[in-house]
Known about the structure:
The chain is mostly beta strands and 128 residues long. 4% of the residues lie in helices and 48% in strands. It has one helix and eleven strands; from the N terminus they run βββββββββαββ. The protein has one helix at 105-109, and strands spanning 3-7, 10-12, 18-25, 32-39, 46-52, 58-60, 68-73, 78-83, 92-100, 117-118, 122-126. The N and C termini lie far apart (40 Å).
Amino acid sequence: QVQLVESGGGLVQPGGSLRLSCVASGSTLNYHVIGWFRQAPGKEREGVSCISSGDGTTYYADSVKGRFTISRDNAKNTVYLEMNSLKAEDTAVYYCAAEPSFATVQAMCVRSALFRHWGQGTQVTVSS
């Protein structure tokens, strides 16, 4: 059973940066797709970015392309989300999720229901 713990959220001004971390325990993330999802008040949970633990294939939602970067450190069982040029609309609770899968990263990332393992979430607030 995989346990996921996110960290790195906080309050940042528009245009600022944050780096989120997701540490996995209880199992390695071999052959997993690991994703970052976010949910703002009154909105559905959306896939922000996902990465394959195997070949490192990545997917980004259009809203974050060019601003966010996902990466993994398999030795540390950790996935990161580097967020730059943050906007007010990026404000949300960010969740890390993982699922063993050989499906494409994009196919997984657009359907949060496919992920069974979730972290508790970390709040990101972008405000002046």
